[in-house]
Amino acid sequence: MPKLTQCSKPGRSASVLLMAAMLAACGAETSVSASNDTDAAESVQAATAETERDLFVNGLAGTFLDAGGDAPVVLIVPGSGPTDRNGNSAQGIKTNAYRQLAEGLKAEGISSLRVDKRGMYASFSAGDPNDVTVDLYAQDYRDWAALLREETGQDCVYLMGHSEGGTMVSATAAQYPDGICGLILLAAPGRPYANVLREQLQANPANAPILAQALPAIASLEAGETVDPSEFHPGLQGLFNPAVQGFLISVFAIDPAELVREAGLPTLVLQGANDIQVTVTDAERLADAGGTLTLLPGVNHVLKNAPEDRAGNLATYSNPDLPLADTVIPSIVDFIEN
Fold first, then answer.
1. Which tens digit of pLDDT belongs to each residue from 197-219?
2. Domain for residue 9, yes or no?
3. Positive or negative: CA dihedral 271, 143, 139, 64
4. How many CB atoms lie within 10 A of CB 139?
5. Domain containing 135 — which CATH number?
6. Which of 188, 215, 219, 276 has the largest CB neighbor count within 10 A?
7. Please, are residues 292 and 267 in contact by the beta-carbon 8 Å criterion?
8. Taking the model in full, what pTM does it have?
9. Stretch 276-299: mean pLDDT
10. Measured distance CA(120)–CA(127) in Å, rounded
């Protein structure tokens, strides 16, 4: 796989969902091919340039893609770690998935805003990217939703979150339901994060040597207690970086399914059958809490067609030219229209 993390110590790194999936993946090399219609791609880019503009609120930055008229509008919230508004990451992940979502929705008459998280990329002035909590993110996305309603004249906004972002938009709607049309949860965890992280670590046989350090650390954070990772295996030091432990304690304290239940809004749960990070069980738990589950055969965590085998699946995480699976946009459009 194309050197996704290079076993480095990222900043906020700690991509709770992604880090565990790739701890032992450093060094493996794989390539994935994708067809690319150059003329079509250039046409899309030209049309996008005419309708795309930056928006700002409280030091946060995002890109608004205007479908015009009385179009419904979607706020696209990134997943865990240093993931930018386009679905790419300083950890080496290059998917362009969020840009592709925005462009695909615009083609169907739906506007969108995709954003950089506080303290990261163009939102660098909004605060310390490490000093965050679930509640703080919820306030950010409440502010974005309010700005979008003002910008578009719409009475309500759809909140779309990918992976960890699904939990953040659920928390936003649970705390600030006014002006929210519904939730779109893409490959989002449905169980408490500590449970997901344990399972991910244990699922990779190559992680066996680090479990004696990782599992007690998770239990401590789950109990609201920080840990000292200075003597941990290098592959764990980014995940349990002291700078991000406040966020981990925050996210370990919530149940994503309960947030969906508390929000009580129309909710689409979109889950790929070949996702190696979030399971169908997670999606079913979200659906049981009040969502409608759409299962996408052959689709992985980054919303691309991917094989079941681990190496081939992870290879799609570093191919920005690979398009979204062709079932993704129609599923979202159907939910919004109906």
1. 998 899 889 999 999 999 999 99
2. no
3. positive
4. 16
5. 3.40.50.1820
6. 188
7. yes
8. 0.86
9. 97
10. 9
